[in-house]
């Protein structure tokens, strides 16, 4: 059924389809029987799926990565599709439109996407108000919410720590954990913040602010799959030194190796982060490397190329405690969480 629907949807612009699909789902979910129907169809409840990670109780280990629900608009709908957690954002202090359109592209031959969205979001103040309303008016939404935070494009790197702090302090009461995003390839210079000294300044400042809170929240770092071994070692060293709560491995890649999509098509698309199947092996190998190097001391959320239950199992065997889908959700459809969850039940 979804294969037919996907064939139709793939005839249209990817970004338009994204909002059309989610807004349509949001509209029909207002009917009481529809929400119940979707929940019955897609939500898997089983004690074997429950995970306690970062001090949080996840009903299942399958989450939705940042960038899908940037502005916390669809938490109710995503919960009824079975997700154990959703990462909103990337959120920046000031609203920004992102890069020029078109900025999201499908690579069907490779089961991949390229995006150069550029942290388009409503800004932290509007997103906080939206989350506040959800927490107050819809207490039945119990999905775990991660806050993925970044810097504005106009903020120089030397002041980036201030942007992360602003988002952290404002979102603190309304999300369950944080992910520091310094690994998107779509904000100029952002990946330079993955260097050890820059990271230390951002993360230690957030940890200091966190320690002053009555209810501290877990802080994770999201890294790129394009880091070399020395850079990964620096991340590991810093994470252990400052007792970081965890890592998200990994973001999108700028590498274009071994794709079935032609060079001419890629040139026409241009720059952006590649996600989906082509990232799977690299992200899994980094997860395994970090897990082995640290003896499993750093909890990892595995992301990159997860389409099936076997893909999720590979990430878990490599060392992930939780997994996130994104591109797989686009290609496999709303039943992806149920399929993965069922495959994880022994």
Structure, explained:
The chain is an alpha/beta fold. It has a single domain (2-344), classed as TIM Barrel (Alpha-Beta Barrel), CATH 3.20.20.70. It contains 13 helices and 13 strands. The chain has helices at residues 2-9, 14-28, 32-42, 75-80, 124-137, 160-171, 196-211, 229-242, 263-269, 280-294, 309-318, 327-332, 336-344, and strands at residues 51-53, 56-58, 62-64, 85-91, 104-107, 112-115, 144-149, 177-181, 219-223, 246-249, 273-276, 300-303, 322-325. It has an eight-stranded parallel beta barrel with strand order 3-4-7-8-9-10-12-13, surrounded by five helices. A three-stranded antiparallel β-sheet has the order 5-6-11, with no helix packed on it. It has a two-stranded antiparallel sheet with strand order 1-2. Helix 4 links the parallel strand 3 (62-64) and strand 4 (85-91). Helix 8 packs across helix 10. The longest helix has 16 residues, at 196-211. It is globular, with a radius of gyration of 19 Å. It starts with a helix and ends with a helix.
Beta-strand residue fraction: 15-25%
Secondary structure tally, helices: 13
Specify Rg, calculated over alpha carbons: 19 Å
Q: Give the strand order of the largest sheet, numbering strands 1, 2, ... along the chain.
A: 3-4-7-8-9-10-12-13
In CATH terms, the superfamily is Aldolase class I
User: Could you say what the CATH architecture is?
Assistant: Alpha-Beta Barrel
Envelope shape = globular
> What integer is the average pLDDT?
96
Question: What profile does the largest beta sheet have?
Answer: 8 strands, parallel, barrel
| Percentage of residues in helical conformation | 40-55%
Q: In terms of per-residue confidence, which ranges show pLDDT below 50 for 5 or more consecutive residues?
A: none
Number of strands: 13
CATH topology tier name: TIM Barrel
Structural class: alpha/beta
Number of domains: 1
In the CATH hierarchy, what is the class? Alpha Beta
Distance between the termini: 28 Å
Order of helices and strands: HHHEEEHEEEHEHEHEHEHEHEHEHH
């Amino acid at each position: 059924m979804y294969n037919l629907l996907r064939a139709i949807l793939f005839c249209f612009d990817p970004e338009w389809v994204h909002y059309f699909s989610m807004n349509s789902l949001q509209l029909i979910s207002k009917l009481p029987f529809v929400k119940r129907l979707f929940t019955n169809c897609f939500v898997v409840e089983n004690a074997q799926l429950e995970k306690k990670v970062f001090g949080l109780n996840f009903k299942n280990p399958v989450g939705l990565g940042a960038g899908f629900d940037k502005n916390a608009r669809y938490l109710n709908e995503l919960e009824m599709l079975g997700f154990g957690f959703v990462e909103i954002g990337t959120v920046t202090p000031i609203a920004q439109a992102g890069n020029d359109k078109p900025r999201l592209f499908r690579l069907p031959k490779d089961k991949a996407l390229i995006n150069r969205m550029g942290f388009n979001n409503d800004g932290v103040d509007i997103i906080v108000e939206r989350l506040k309303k959800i927490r107050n008016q819809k207490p039945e939404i119990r999905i775990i919410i991660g806050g993925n935070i970044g810097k504005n494009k106009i903020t120089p790197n030397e002041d980036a720590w201030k942007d992360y702090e602003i988002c952290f302090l404002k979102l603190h009461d309304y999300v369950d954990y944080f992910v520091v995003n310094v690994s998107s390839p779509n904000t100029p210079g952002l990946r330079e913040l993955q260097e050890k000294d820059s990271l230390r300044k951002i993360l230690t400042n957030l940890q200091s602010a966190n320690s002053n809170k009555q209810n501290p929240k877990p802080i994770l770092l999201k890294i790129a799959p394009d880091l070399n071994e020395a850079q990964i070692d620096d991340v590991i060293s810093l994470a252990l030194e400052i007792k970081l709560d965890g890592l998200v491995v990994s973001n999108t890649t700028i590498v274009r190796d071994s794709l079935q999509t032609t060079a001419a098509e890629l040139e026409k698309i241009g720059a952006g982060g590649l996600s989906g199947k082509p990232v799977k092996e690299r992200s899994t190998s980094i997860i395994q490397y970090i897990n082995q190097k640290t003896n499993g001391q750093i909890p990892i959320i595995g992301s990159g190329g997860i389409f099936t239950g076997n893909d999720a199992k590979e990430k878990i065997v490599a060392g992930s405690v939780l997994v996130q889908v994104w591109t797989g959700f686009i290609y496999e459809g709303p039943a992806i969480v149920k399929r993965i969850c069922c495959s994880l039940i022994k």
